[in-house]
Amino acid sequence: AASACPLFAGWPGADAPKPRMRDPASVHSADGARVLWTIDNKRYDVTDYVDAHPGGRDAILAAQGRSATALFRSYHSLSDSAQAVLDRYYVEDAAPGDADYEDEWEWRSTPFHDALNRRVRAHFERKQARRERVRGGTVSTAHKAPAWKWAWLGAATVAWAASLAGFLAGSWAAMLAMPLLYWLGPSSLLHDGMHWSLSVSPRVNGALAALGGVHMEPTAWLHQHVIGHHSHTNVVERDPDLDHFTGSGGASVLQVGGGAADNAFYGFRCHAAEPWRPTFGAWKAWLPIMGLLTTVYPSMFESTEMLSRGSFLGRVPLVALSRSDVARLWLGRALVASVLWVAPFALHGLTLKALAFATLPLFIHGAVYYVFSQVSHIQPPCFEEPPEGERFEWAEMQVRHSLDWGNGGVVQTLASIGLNSQVVHHVYPQIDPTHYGELRPIFEQTCEEFGIPYHRQPSLWHALRSHVSLLQDMNRTDVWGASGDGAPAPQAAAAMA
Q: Where's the Cytochrome b5 heme-binding domain (predicted)?
């Protein structure tokens, strides 16, 4: 039978009644088999453990039906008991060739990650001991947000709420301030809450993350950012963040001819594996346009397009959604559209003021988000691949594919919502960004010992210049367009070397 709603056509479970709350036991593959959790190419059935999971239901359900070794290893890197708990639910091994079998990273021997884990654990054990001497208590919260961070986020979020009221009242100053305050408050809540780094309470993390749902619907953000980007950072055809600007994953609203990537009429090239299109020759025009759309496009189009496609940009499959998941997504997008797009014209009529109020906040936030998010990964040294026949450790890949800028200080961390320390963040996403400055020396020492480059720039300005230089090299028509297939013309490539 056809799906009652075409938006669900083509993805697993489209014809089945959707439960109010996601029931992991009800998720089956096309052949009727239960969908399990795959860690280290071993399958586990943790259905009975979902409600007891200390990190909450959303965290453990995000790993169902996919190879989730990176998620498991990164989020449990400070735990000594997680593997023992998981072992109780072992079912079978995945076989080479299975959809959930993965051999991209070296997991059997991980001396670099092990050394980092020992040192980072010791750092927080010392902090926790000091906290317990002063305050008492036994729950390890030393790596979560400190009290002053909560005060900062509270103040920024209240200020944003006040600016929203001013926006609806027609204040130009409030309209211009609103996206900046949103970045400092709710955007940070979305990012940190969905990484479960704010609090030890999954309910608190989830509730606060919802406040950041203007920029991105939380379910879509979970698939794009937490599952996709963090597991396969800068890995071509796996990291959806590489597709926002090139059109490779491509939401159909910006494509022609059934969503084929070759027909995308926009964008610019971020990496050498992207096939060349003549459009890329106009990258200097597309860069500011796409930068301004960095908020509105994922928020309103990629989030909803995910439902019809059954995956986020074709890179991160949806395993199952409940009725409440779908309803929350649509209601959230409707609320955002009503407040940011409909309200300005309802309040100010068909005027230039209404147009400015309906566009500038999203454009300002988009520009800020583009700068802080892209300069840490779209960089010349951040696409390194291992020598032929070898594999990186996953943690090593994260370090090689990320870049830190600045000195890791408090002001830079708060202004960038922690995106100034992406090397640290990508290995330890469950740690609140306010601690990253303390961990940088540990990373520098460990990287030096293992001969792994630790990419950093002295300032945001230096990082931005390096980012733009990569885009310039990747979009040169005389180099990449000469062969027409994404390979550089030999003489031009030699000139670039």
A: 17-95
